[in-house]
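Question: I have long wanted to understand how a fold can be written as tokens. Here is the record:
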Amino acid sequence: MAEPIPGSPRSCPPALVRYEAEGPVARLILDSPSNRNALSTALVEQLHDGLTRASAQHGVRVVVLGHTGGTFCAGADLSEAAGRDPADLAVERAQDMTRLLRRLLELPLPVIAAIDGHVRAGGLGLVGACDIAVAGGSSTFALSEARIGVAPSIISLTLLPKMTARAAGRYFLTGERFGVAAAAEMGLITVAADDVPAAVTELTSAIALGSPQGLAESKALTTAAILADFDRHAEKLTQQSAALFVSDEAREGMLAFLEKRRPNWVS
């Protein structure tokens, strides 16, 4: 049965992540289609709550990270800048993103991204942090940070270990959209599926045969090197991300994005 993830009692934000559990499978469903499941402070907090709940629930062996609407995740919620000190918000958002990606990597349960829509910017960081990623044929991906004056700083910690160097060198710089076939070829996704739910069910059924200890230790083998590199560079990249977001170019880029116009560096 689907249940909302309760928010902080202090702020009581709306439910942006739904929790479903059936047998060995816990599902965290990003449910904020009005802003394309952007990574707002509240949504990130509720994701943490859902991961905690799944880890504590007896019998759960695997987490599926899905979504409602046509977008899996659009990246940072740029609308949160209104009414906040930009420097404080940038630091807070960078730290939150770093903590979330590390949480996915270190979670003892395997995490499967179930994507049947579009993924942009920080959303790709979530995909990179998942152990397995399944995407439908109409899914599209783009790293658009350079186009608004910033860079995929923090999410590079989960993307560079998964993408080929040539693909990263292209898509980090161009911001081009690419489809599911290219995403599979570069290693960003595991399975390009005609039927995402069926492909996910096949994977969760296989994972459910594993023991809690066997799954946790096997996952740890696959994430150890990523986590070691993550911890070496996370602080520097978190600071870089925060600094970029309050730069003059980023202010212009984000304003242009919100106003649906070209930034001033594009003639």
Q: What stands out?
A: The two ends are 53 Å apart (CA to CA). The longest strand covers residues 17-22. Residues 7-11 have pLDDT under 50 and may be disordered. Residues 206 and 218 are 14 Å apart (CA to CA).
